[in-house]
């Protein structure tokens, strides 16, 4: 197929790898070796008898050989790329009649080489055809229009029937990727979020908002308390530092400050001889040291003995209270049953709730609300609250379709350098911009 | 001797795969992988035990099912994504080299892919697609309102706008709208699409915020998928009503005052005030799907279902014969959609936009929607109402008195049709006049009133035994109190005037005090019995209230 001169016998081809520059240089010395693996670019250059394999749009400019143009006229224009390729492959017709015009008997290897690129090209062209088609093949995706069964449907049916016949089982149902979350896709806000709510609804909404604020406050307070307990004085350190900073920066701004300056300075006797000591470390109630292993063993043995005695005594007592014991057993079984139910319910809730995906937990967004004096007297004067884009993203996160992400500032580790590759530099100089 | 079992070679460790591993396996960049997952509907999973999956470590990672990733590997869109990457690399190189003709050629031949097969795969039946319509509509409506400068391609915004308008036209033609809620965030609609309740939100007309923590790349991929899906869904919905798809306007329109001829179709479609062409060529008849009657249903859900059907029928004919005129300051598209979905006719001033059908001075206009204080310039023969009247009528299923919604006065509260107010859903959520915010400033609500919707009926029964009688009465009152405490949004019984309210208040207070006295007068042994009865009654009432709430919640979401 790609042999330019069928009369000339194929030279013995040198199988060299083509991914290194030096092998290319070797190849280029012997042009004949290139022949079976010519690129289309090479073919285009050889205009005589060659043909142009076109896989593009009909609107593209392409160089057609005279034969192909004639063939196109004969067949009619507007044929698809596939038929164009296939129709242009009657290369033997362009050859002079005689023994040489018959197609050369191809060896197996030649056949393999000749068929491979064509298949790929045909497939590529067919795919390109499909994709370049304007819009979908049909708008009727779910088959509401009465139409004859397409071959695709019958093929699938046949396959399924065949499978059922062979395996004597129904085919396994496909597991569709439906979300298991029971949360609604478009959560409607609470009635108090109406633009003109009733008193009860509005109060309920404000109460809920206040509750969440109180919870936040209590958390902050708890954190503050914990900090104070472990690192006394540091919890307020930031605030104190800010206050001191403000005072320092504002020094001298007001006249009253400068007047009383002389009186306020008190010279304290500052003792710099000894360095200040750090505050004493708070000693926690830890045992002084570990008891020796022997002592531990002794203690353990004694404890075991005592436990054994107790157990025996208890056994004898238990025999006398069998009925009560049976009742106890019943109660514990019931409790175990209840625990199991609770566990299953928790598992179900977990499956239908928001999953923990990745680093960040999903945080329920705060409900938007308007205070009493912000309520709009009419629809025209309403100022919207909240953002429906954020709502949409949160809804996807709630249903575990997206994992919660936080925006991080992207910092470059090393300074950014721009450079131009050697080859591009040269070509940029040569090319006119 | 048996082989030692190696850890992490079976079970969860082999069924999950981390995201980094998946990227390596599929040879995709993170952005492309995210796009593919969104398109194919592959979502991250949470393994029960992260340590087992991560071979002992518990660092938080994002995990996927291995089978899902293997499934992704067979997707031909993946190859397209790689082609696009290669294409972009070529274009960048050509641009750097200054080969503009190459850049143009590459732009012309940009690899394209379609998502039809993915939609067919994810939604094998039309009903599956309808169940996912909530998400689709919300996102498409959001994108249709985006400004061009947001970084989203203009074509995508226009496509979303076109498809959402087509869907609204279908809802109008099918008279499928059931609920409207105007919140501070936006408008929330519920429509009945083939028996499935679809809820979507539309933002207010004012400018959108600029949310910092929203990744628009991801939302764009979602939108890409949903616009394709909505196109197919629209086709199916239109063909079920016998309308032509792509939709065409039934009448000729004159775009001369508004837009160029090429944009006329889009602009007049967006006005939502033009009838559509049917498949056979004439104007669409507008035969809305009437909800079916199933007389022999089981008694349990039959009442609620039949009430819902009655209400739906009432909503479909609500504004039949009414002619509306919208003032400039009202939200025109929303009101036009709502009014036409319930059978009314709308028009507006020709200066407001295309689609006006009759002028303001038309004698047949029955209602004029205004949203600002009117002067004396009122025309006779029509009612002037605020926009909220329309929404409240739709929610209640009946025409409410227009006097309450006169312009300039604070209107009654706009209650949410999505919330379960107690026992009043059947007759129409807005019948009971929950006192408006402004009115209650002067007269605070009565707590006794709030807690006792229908306890009076139970007190009528008389029994022979005094202790049981007293016990039953007390129990009934206690039940009511308990129920009232549980249901947070309790509606007041309908009260017309303040005077009658005060009278009923006093009577009820007296009755309550009398009951307390009788309770104190019970002998000791009867008191024990009474306490036990009250306790068991309370518990039963609590359980039944919880079950009722669950049922309502399920009915709402289903």
From TrEMBL, chain A:
It is found in: Nucleus, Nucleolus; Nucleus, Nucleoplasm. Keywords: Nucleus, Ribosome biogenesis. Residues 256-274 have a biased composition (Acidic residues). The keyword Nucleus applies. Its main location: nucleus. The keyword Nucleus applies. GO terms for biological process: ribosomal large subunit assembly; rRNA processing. One of its GO terms (cellular component) is nucleolus. Residues 315-324 have a biased composition (Basic and acidic residues). Residues 10-26, 408-421 have a biased composition (Basic residues). One of its GO terms (molecular function) is 5S rRNA binding. Residues 1-26, 47-153, 174-198, 250-362, 401-433 are annotated as: Disordered. May play a role in ribosome biogenesis. PANTHER family: GLIOMA SUPPRESSOR CANDIDATE REGION GENE 2, RIBOSOME BIOGENESIS PROTEIN NOP53. Belongs to the NOP53 family. This is Ribosome biogenesis protein NOP53.
TrEMBL record, chain B:
Residues 314-407 form the BRCT domain. Residues 500-522 have a biased composition (Basic and acidic residues). Transmembrane segments: none annotated. GO terms for cellular component: nucleoplasm; PeBoW complex; preribosome, large subunit precursor. Keywords: Nucleus, Ribosome biogenesis, rRNA processing. Residues 279-307, 437-558 are annotated as: Disordered. It is found in: Nucleus, Nucleolus; Nucleus, Nucleoplasm. SUPFAM superfamilies: BRCT domain. SMART domains: BRCT. GO terms for molecular function: ribonucleoprotein complex binding; RNA binding. InterPro entries: BRCT_dom, BRCT_dom_sf, PES. Pfam families: BRCT_2, Pescadillo_N. Residues 523-540 have a biased composition (Basic residues). Residues 290-301, 458-468 have a biased composition (Acidic residues). GO terms for biological process: maturation of 5.8S rRNA from tricistronic rRNA transcript (SSU-rRNA, 5.8S rRNA, LSU-rRNA); maturation of LSU-rRNA from tricistronic rRNA transcript (SSU-rRNA, 5.8S rRNA, LSU-rRNA). Required for maturation of ribosomal RNAs and formation of the large ribosomal subunit. Belongs to the pescadillo family. This is Pescadillo homolog.
């Amino acid at each position: 197929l790609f042999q330019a001169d069928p009369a000339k016998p194929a030279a013995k081809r040198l199988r060299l790898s083509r991914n290194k520059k030096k092998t290319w240089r070797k190849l280029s010395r012997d042009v004949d070796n290139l022949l079976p693996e010519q690129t289309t670019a090479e073919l285009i250059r050889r205009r005589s008898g060659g043909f142009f394999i076109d896989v593009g749009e009909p609107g593209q400019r392409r160089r057609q050989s005279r034969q192909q143009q004639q063939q196109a006229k004969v067949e009619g224009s507007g044929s698809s790329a596939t038929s164009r390729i296939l129709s242009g492959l009657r290369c033997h017709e362009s050859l002079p009649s005689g023994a040489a015009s018959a197609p050369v008997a191809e060896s197996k290897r030649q056949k393999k080489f000749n068929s491979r690129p064509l298949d790929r090209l045909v497939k590529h062209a067919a795919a390109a055809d499909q994709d370049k088609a304007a819009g979908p093949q049909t708008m009727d995706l779910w088959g509401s229009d009465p139409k004859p069964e397409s071959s695709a449907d019958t093929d699938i049916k046949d396959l399924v029937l065949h499978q059922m016949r062979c395996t004597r089982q129904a085919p396994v149902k496909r597991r569709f990727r439906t979300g298991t979350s029971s949360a609604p896709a478009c959560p409607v806000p609470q009635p108090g979020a109406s633009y003109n709510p009733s008193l009860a609804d509005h109060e309920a909404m404000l109460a809920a908002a206040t509750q969440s604020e109180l919870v936040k406050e209590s958390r902050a307070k708890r954190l503050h308390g914990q900090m104070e307990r472990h690192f006394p004085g540091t919890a307020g350190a930031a605030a104190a530092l800010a206050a001191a900073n403000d005072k320092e920066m504002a020094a001298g701004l007001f006249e009253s400050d400068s007047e009383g300056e002389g009186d306020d300075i008190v010279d304290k006797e500052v003792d710099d001889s000894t360095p200040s000591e750090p505050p004493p470390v708070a000693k926690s109630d830890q045992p002084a040291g570990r008891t020796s292993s022997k002592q531990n063993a002794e203690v353990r043995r004694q404890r075991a003995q005592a436990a054994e005695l107790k157990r025996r005594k208890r056994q004898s007592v238990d025999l006398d209270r069998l009925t009560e014991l049976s009742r106890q057993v019943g109660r514990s079984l019931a409790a175990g049953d209840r625990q199991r139910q609770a566990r299953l319910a928790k598992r179900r809730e977990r499956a239908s709730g928001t999953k923990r995906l990745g680093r960040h937990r999903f945080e329920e967004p705060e409900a938007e609300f308007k205070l009493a004096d912000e309520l709009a007297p009419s629809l025209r004067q309403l100022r919207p609250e909240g953002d429906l884009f954020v709502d949409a993203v949160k809804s996807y996160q709630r249903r575990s379709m997206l994992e919660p992400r936080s925006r991080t500032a992207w910092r470059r580790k090393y300074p950014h350098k721009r450079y131009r590759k050697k080859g591009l530099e040269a070509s940029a100089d040569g090319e006119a911009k | 001797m048996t082989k030692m079992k190696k850890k992490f070679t079976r079970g969860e460790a082999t069924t999950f795969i981390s995201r980094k591993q998946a990227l390596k396996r599929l040879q995709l960049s993170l952005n492309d992988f995210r796009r593919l997952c969104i398109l194919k509907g592959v979502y991250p999973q949470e393994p029960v035990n992260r340590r087992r999956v991560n071979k002992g470590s518990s660092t938080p990672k994002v995990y996927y099912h291995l089978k899902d990733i293997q499934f992704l590997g067979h997707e031909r869109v993946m190859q397209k994504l790689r082609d696009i990457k290669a294409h972009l690399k070529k274009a960048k190189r050509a641009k750097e080299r200054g080969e503009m003709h190459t850049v143009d050629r590459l732009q012309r031949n940009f690899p394209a892919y379609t998502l039809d097969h993915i939609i067919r795969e994810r939604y094998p039946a039309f009903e599956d697609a309808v169940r996912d319509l909530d998400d689709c509509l919300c996102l498409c409506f959001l994108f249709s309102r985006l400004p061009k400068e947001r970084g989203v391609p203009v074509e995508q915004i226009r496509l979303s706008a076109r498809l959402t308008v087509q869907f609204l036209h279908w809802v109008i033609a099918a008279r499928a709208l059931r609920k409207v809620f105007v919140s501070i965030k936006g408008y929330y609609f519920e429509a009945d699409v083939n028996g499935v309740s679809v809820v979507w939100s539309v933002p207010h007309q004012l400018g959108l915020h600029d949310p910092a923590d929203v990744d628009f790349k991801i939302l764009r991929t979602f939108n890409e998928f949903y616009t394709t899906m909505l196109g197919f869904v629209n086709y199916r919905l239109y063909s079920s009503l016998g309308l032509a798809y792509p939709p065409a306007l039934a009448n000729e329109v004159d775009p001369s005052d508004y837009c160029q001829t090429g944009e006329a179709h889009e602009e007049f479609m967006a006005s939502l005030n033009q009838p559509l062409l049917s498949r056979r060529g004439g104007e669409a008849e507008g035969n809305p799907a009437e909800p079916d009657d199933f007389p022999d249903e089981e008694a349990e859900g039959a009442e609620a279902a039949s009430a819902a059907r009655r209400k739906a029928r009432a909503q479909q004919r609500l504004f039949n014969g009414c002619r509306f005129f919208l003032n400039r300051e009202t939200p025109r598209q929303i009101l036009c959609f709502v009014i036409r979905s319930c059978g009314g006719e709308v028009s507006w001033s020709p200066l407001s936009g295309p689609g006006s059908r009759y002028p303001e001075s038309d004698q047949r206009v029955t209602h004029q929607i205004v949203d600002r204080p009117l002067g004396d310039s009122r025309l006779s023969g029509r009612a002037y109402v605020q926009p909220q009247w329309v929404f409240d009528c739709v929610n209640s299923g009946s025409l409410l008195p227009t006097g309450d919604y006169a312009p300039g006065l604070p209107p009654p509260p706009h209650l949410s049709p999505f919330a379960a107010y107690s026992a009043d859903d059947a007759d129409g959520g807005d019948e009971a006049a929950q006192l408006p915010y402004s009115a209650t400033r002067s007269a605070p609500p009565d707590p006794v009133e709030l807690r006792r919707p229908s306890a009076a009926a139970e007190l009528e029964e008389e029994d022979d035994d005094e202790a049981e009688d007293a016990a039953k009465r007390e129990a009934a009152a206690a039940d009511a109190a308990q129920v009232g405490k549980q249901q947070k949004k309790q509606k007041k019984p309908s009260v017309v005037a303040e005077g009658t309210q005060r009278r009923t208040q006093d009577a009820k207070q007296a009755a309550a005090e009398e009951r307390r006295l009788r309770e104190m007068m019970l002998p000791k042994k009867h008191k024990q019995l009474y306490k036990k009865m009250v306790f068991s009654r309370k518990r039963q009432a609590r359980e039944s209230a919880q079950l009722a709430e669950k049922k309502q919640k399920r009915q709402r979401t289903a």
